[in-house]
Amino acid sequence: MPKELLEGNAAIAEAAIRAGVEAYFGYPITPQTEVLEHFSERLPELGRVFLQAESEVAAINMVYGAACAGARVMTSSSSPGISLMQEGLSYIACSDVPVVVANIMRGGPGLGNVAPSQGDYFQAVKTTGHGDFHMIVLAPATVQEAIDLVMLAFDLAEKYRTIAMVVADGSLGQMMEPAELPPMRPLRPPKDRPAWALTGAKDRPPSIITSLFLDPEVLEDVNLRLQAKLKDIAAHEVRWKEHSTEDADLLLVAFGTVGRICQTVVRDARAKGIKVGLLRPVSLWPFPSARLNELARQVRGMLAVEMNAGQMVEDVRLAVEGRCPVRFYGRLGGIVPLADEILPELEKLDAELAGGKEGCHGNS
Amino acid sequence: MATVEIPADMELVYKRPESLTTAHTHYCPGCTHGVIHRLIAEVLDELGVRERTIGIAPVGCSVLAYYYFNVDMAEAAHGRAPAMATGIKRVSPDKVVFTYQGDGDLAAIGTAEIIQAANRGEMFTTIFVNNAIYGMTGGQMAPTTLPGQVTTSSPTGRDVETAGWPMRMAELIGILPGAAYVSRQAVLDIPGIRRTRKALKLAFQAQLAGLGFAMVEIISTCSTNWHMGPVEALEWAKEHMVAYYPLGDTKVSDGVRAMMEGK
Amino acid sequence: MAKGMVIVDEDRCKGCGLCMTVCPAHILQLADGRFNAKGYWPIQVTDPPACTGCASCATICPDVVFTVYRQKRQPKPAAAPA
């Protein structure tokens, strides 16, 4: 397929269409409304289901219903709307039905603003509403990667019967760049819906999809089964990209747009003789902890850079288990940190850690 | 149960509907949920749609309704059943979809969802069980609790100055163009039960004919939280609830009227 | 000869007494001091021959306790040959 100039939000929607999404339910919220608008135009012309819901609360429950009926379904929103969806996501998490969600993050907390942020990392990675669960969380850094990860999200959601969330910041949703869309996958006909789906109790006992298990021992069993599923996902679906890490003695860790910006920082720093590399997590959950732990034995220190007050950095610290110092640089309020303000932070770290590898357990 | 010999000159007149499971319900003695479940099941049997029906259970006393209906069922979050039903019906238009909801589910936390679904004319059927109280959580005030009615969260009686007046959902929903058939009935005596069954059948037929959203509000009792015996509860409802919640159709669209007359 | 007959599934009964209020023959009574598996006094038919098979009990029962039988309608006698 040829490359086209595509807007991030529209590309995300179109990628879902190519992936065979059958239904989309959503609600307008800046900076992701173009996702909804693209679906509103394309889905009816393809004879598929589009509905603008009355709220994000309603939208996620429509998604839940459609998923229970075995249809490939998606929603999208931005930070405050994702907060409204937390209840629905928790129900979906307990129900073993596949759902894809996109969060185009904006400044928060509260109503915040419509500028880009990465302030929902904790929300996406640590919680799925209330209760014990983890969604698969994927973080693209380019419009092309957004397309690829949306396609992947549908496959993973269905493979594990779980929620796959694609998180991007507002700038990725709004930017236009050349990217290639995959060919259209054939739509799965209703008669081929999964056996577990609610399709009418014909020639079989009725199916029930519920997240209510009043007996504590039964609910514990349900949870243990979900945890086993998550363990399986964690073992097989970790994704990340590395740049210049082979000989690095400092490491930048950043995801999404910031990860992309850090590629420039690596180039500029290397030009100044600083041997820095970059690890860009692509799956935020499961997190590339093992690889970071490995790199922690190689580098003098790490600098996590995010558009928040320090969220992913906590997972970096957990991953390195104290083997090397981990510092943080971030901007808030919807401000995007640029390469020329990140580089001085890196240089500070370089100077601070001059004199070789230290750390609590100084093995090199 | 010992086998009983049926006289040769007798025929079966009534037995458990196929669309009801054999499970014993957890409902209190005399709870009208049992009657309403049965009526819905009878209608599904009569219309021959059991095998393509998907029901959505609410949060409330009937949260476990999925053990009692012999159809595919999903459990919705509180108030969200109409949104779930929308999702299910839109991707499975050939299925028969219903939601079963109580006062809190439909008239409090779920008001947005029911109004919007009805307004869109969603092709599913809602059964709204109105017993003027929150049963499952132990008897708190509901949007349908009557003025002066004592509940655990209105211990001196519902004060309309602070809590507002009870909500008449059948009328509110009936205003919406997308609603094809809306009726309020009561299961407080034999004639009422028979009329409720007729209304339920029409409500499902409206769905089958693609005429729009249909809802049957059913005046019901809550013996336990009204602190009355089952028979006394029926009498109380007849005496106090029907006056505030008039029985009858609040919406009959032209399409439904034509269907009723064509029968 | 009884016009109707009901079979009572005693273990489903919760002793709510609603059926007693609608039986036109007044032949339904809660068993006095006899309990079913749930611990309720189940309903019982006091005078089976008086049952008309109207099914009012089954109509109001929340727990599907009753299965109802009724005399088949006799076919109308054929018209006398001309």
Textual characterization of the structure:
With 364 residues, chain A is an alpha/beta fold. Residues 359-364 of chain A have low confidence and may be disordered. Chain A is 41% helix and 19% strand. In chain A, helix 1 (8-18) packs parallel to helix 6 and helix 10 crosses helix 11 (312-320). In chain A, the strands form 3 sheets. In chain A, strands 3-2-4-5-7-6-13 form a 7-stranded mixed sheet, sandwiched between helices. In chain A, strands 10-12-11-14-15 form a 5-stranded mixed sheet, sandwiched between helices. Chain B has a single domain (32-262), classed as Rossmann fold (3-Layer(aba) Sandwich). Chain B has a 7-stranded mixed sheet, with helices on both faces. In chain B, helix 1 packs across helix 7. Chain C has 82 residues and is an alpha+beta fold. Chain C has a single domain (4-70), classed as Alpha-Beta Plaits, CATH 3.30.70.20. Helix content of chain C is 12%, strand content 21%. Chain C contains 2 helices and 4 strands; from the N terminus they run E-H-E-E-H-E. Chain C has helices spanning 18-22, 56-60, and strands at 4-8, 28-30, 43-45, 66-71. Chain C has a two-stranded antiparallel ribbon with strand order 1-4. Chain C has a two-stranded antiparallel sheet with strand order 2-3.
Strand sequence of the main sheet of chain C, in spatial order? 1-4
CATH class of chain C: Alpha Beta
Determine the fraction of residues in helical runs of chain C and give it as a percent range.
Answer: 10-25%
The fourth-level CATH homologous superfamily of the largest domain in chain A is: Thiamin diphosphate (ThDP)-binding fold, Pyr/PP domains
List segments of chain C where confidence is low: pLDDT < 50 over at least 5 consecutive residues. Answer: none
Instruction: Sketch the topology of chain A as an H/E string, one letter per element.
Output: EHEHEHEHEHEHEHEEHEEHEEHEHEH
Discrete helix count of chain C = 2
Find the structural class of chain C using helix and strand composition.
Answer: alpha+beta
Instruction: Compute the number of strand runs of chain C.
Output: 4
Q: Could you tell me how far the N terminus lies from the C terminus of chain C, measured between alpha carbons in angstroms? A: 35 Å
Largest interface: A-B, 40 and 36 residues
